[in-house]
């Protein structure tokens, strides 16, 4: 729902994901909004969401959203593609602040970028099966042709830090080589996939434009904050000189904090300065 309550522009932006992949969305938001602070929640105890039912995904997503809202945020970004595909209406009913998913921005950016309206989408199996990107692209431009492709092995390759290895090139070639002649634009419809951007580009060819849904989401969030009068100010914070994962941003996980920190270092180049393990279901309490 559109926010009608007066909010403090200096409150942080909340981000949640089912795990570590949403860190690429955090990075994009940080780069496009250098004056903002962020609170990130990775639901690492209950990942993956893609194998869960609609009711379960909605329940988890609302719990995550309410946890972040209770910590005082001015806007929520749902970085998880599965939750964006299945749970945005439930999240918006539960909160009284603006909620932005990654699918709509990614779809709109693809339509704006595609000259021939031949758009590919690569994502996890659950996101592909949901058809959410196809619907969002059709809403933006009914004349566009959409091809969706599940690329599940990209997730472990990204998390293992093998994005530049021969195995990543072989997997990307196997998944994507037949798309070269059929698309002019490709949406990276999973938060892990920007880590593999170079090998994906090699596999589809330089003529295909790549759309990072996290980047597109960051652009739309920047516009929304400006429209609402909620853009943060660098005054007194030194925000323009801030580094990724510094102590102005707070990270929470529901399990495996040490592994999250290791993967964060692979994705972002540094470990979170403030990282806590928590429970978001029932009574919130620190686990570590």
Describe the structure.
The strands form two sheets. This protein has a six-stranded parallel beta sheet, with helices on both faces. Strands 6-5-7-8 form a four-stranded parallel beta sheet. Mean pLDDT is 91; it is low at 235-240 and 283-288. By secondary structure, the chain is an alpha/beta fold. The chain starts with 12 loop residues before the first strand and ends in an 11-residue tail after the last strand. The protein has helices at 23-32, 54-70, 81-86, 88-94, 103-113, 125-130, 132-140, 154-159, 166-176, 197-204, 213-228, 257-268; strands at 13-17, 38-42, 75-78, 98-101, 118-123, 145-150, 185-188, 209-212, 250-253, 275-277. It folds into two domains: 13-101 and 215-277, Rossmann fold, CATH 3.40.50; 104-214, Rossmann fold (3-Layer(aba) Sandwich). The protein is 41% helix and 16% strand. Helix 1 (23-32) crosses helix 11 (213-228), helix 5 (103-113) packs across helix 11 (213-228) and helix 9 packs across helix 10. The longest helix is centred in the first third of the chain and has 17 residues, at 54-70. Strand 7, helix 10 and strand 8 (209-212) form a beta-alpha-beta unit. The chain is built from twelve helices and ten strands.
């Amino acid at each position: 729902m559109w926010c009608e309550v007066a909010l403090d522009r200096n409150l942080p932006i909340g981000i949640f994901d089912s795990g570590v992949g949403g860190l690429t969305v955090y990075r994009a938001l940080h780069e496009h909004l250098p004056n903002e602070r962020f609170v990130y929640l990775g639901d690492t105890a209950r990942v993956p969401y893609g194998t869960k039912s609609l009711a379960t995904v909605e329940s988890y997503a609302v719990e995550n959203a309410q946890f972040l809202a209770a910590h005082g945020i001015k806007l929520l970004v749902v970085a998880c593609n599965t939750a964006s595909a299945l749970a945005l209406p439930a999240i918006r009913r539960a909160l009284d602040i603006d909620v932005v998913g990654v699918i709509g921005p990614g779809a709109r950016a693809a339509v704006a970028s595609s000259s021939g309206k031949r758009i590919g989408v690569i994502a996890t199996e659950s996101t592909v099966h949901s058809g959410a990107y196809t619907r969002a692209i059709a809403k933006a431009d009914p004349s566009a042709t959409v091809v969706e492709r599940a690329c599940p092995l990209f997730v472990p390759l990204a998390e293992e830090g093998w994005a530049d290895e021969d195995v990543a090139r072989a997997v990307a070639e196997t998944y994507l080589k037949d798309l070269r002649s059929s698309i002019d634009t490709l949406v990276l419809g999973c938060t892990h996939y920007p880590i593999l951007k170079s090998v994906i580009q090699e596999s589809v060819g330089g003529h295909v434009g790549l759309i990072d849904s996290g980047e597109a989401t960051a652009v739309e969030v920047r516009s929304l904050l400006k429209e609402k009068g909620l853009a943060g100010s660098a005054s007194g914070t030194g925000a323009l000189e801030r580094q990724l994962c510094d102590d102005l941003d707070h990270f929470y996980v529901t399990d495996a904090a040490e592994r999250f920190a290791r993967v964060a270092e692979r994705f972002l180049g540094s470990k979170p300065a403030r990282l806590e393990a928590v429970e978001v279901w029932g009574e919130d309490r620190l686990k570590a």
